[in-house]
Every structure is written in structure tokens, then in C-alpha cells.
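We were asked to recover a plausible sequence for a given structure. The inputs and outputs are reproduced exactly as logged, with field labels preserved.

PROBLEM: sequence recovery
POSITIONS: 103
GIVEN STRUCTURE:
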């Protein structure tokens, strides 16, 4: 009986551990999502002249603009479509990645 109890406790602990891991985004995921922005916004968000850089822009600012593109509040030629391809969690992670890059 004691053995079964121990096994259950262990199983519950494992479930709890994997659930809490799922909430934090893997930094490598964030980096590869952010790489999808590089064609236009430059490697690590440092754009060529004439294009908006994302490197060093605050997370809040990027999230706000992405959400506004998603909902159509902010006019766009491309970003309204691109922003719809990412979940809110992904946008948070991508924005945090760019905010942490040097300008
Ligand atoms: C195919 C090119 C392209 C890609 C890829 C792209 N963008 Fe953009 N981005 C644009 C263009 C063009 C604009 C100007 C608004 C418009 O016309 O859509 C813009 C504007 C923005 C702005 C607003 C900049 C400002 O301050 O005015 C943000 C924030 C942004 N993009 C974030 C992203 C993120 C994050 C990604 C990756 C998930 C991304 N973009 C991928 C082309 C692109």
C-alpha cells in the first residue's frame, strides 16, 4: 500500500513539474520565432536604414503594436497578416527577445 502511495505522489509531482514548465517559453523557441521577423526587421531586430528596427524597443511597445495590427486598430500593409500568425504568448516572448537586444 505504501508503495502505491509513493508512486502516486511521484506521478503527481511529475505532472505538476511539467505543467509549470509549459508556461515558461523556451528561450530557443522565442529566438526562432523572432528569426521570422529578420527578413524585414534585420538580424536580431537591427534593421537596414528605412525599416523599423525592433532591437531594444520595449516589450510593451512591441506587444501593443502587434496586438493593434492583429485587431486592425493600426493600419498596415503586411503586419496585420503577420501578427495574426502568432498567439498572444508567442508575441510576448518575441517582444521580450527583441527588447533584450542591443540597439
Ligand atoms: C515581410 C516583411 C515583414 C516581416 C517578416 C515582419 N514585419 Fe514587422 N513590419 C513590416 C512592415 C512593412 C511594417 C510597417 C507596417 C506595415 O506596413 O505593415 C512593419 C512594422 C512592424 C512594427 C511597428 C514598428 C513601428 O514602430 O512602427 C512592429 C512592432 C513589427 N513590425 C513587428 C514585427 C515582428 C515581431 C515580426 C516577426 C514576428 C515582424 N514584424 C515581421 C514588415 C515585416
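RECOVERED SEQUENCE:
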Amino acid at each position: 500500500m505504501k508503495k502505491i502511495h509513493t508512486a502516486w505522489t511521484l506521478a503527481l509531482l511529475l505532472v505538476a513539474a511539467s505543467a509549470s514548465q509549459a508556461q515558461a517559453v523556451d528561450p530557443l523557441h522565442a529566438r526562432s520565432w523572432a528569426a521570422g521577423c529578420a527578413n524585414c526587421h534585420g538580424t536580431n531586430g537591427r534593421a537596414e536604414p528605412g525599416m523599423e528596427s525592433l532591437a531594444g524597443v520595449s516589450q510593451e511597445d512591441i506587444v501593443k503594436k502587434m496586438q493593434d495590427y492583429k485587431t486592425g486598430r493600426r493600419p498596415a500593409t503586411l503586419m496585420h497578416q503577420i501578427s495574426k500568425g502568432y498567439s498572444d504568448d508567442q508575441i510576448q516572448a518575441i517582444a521580450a527577445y527583441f527588447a533584450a537586444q542591443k540597439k
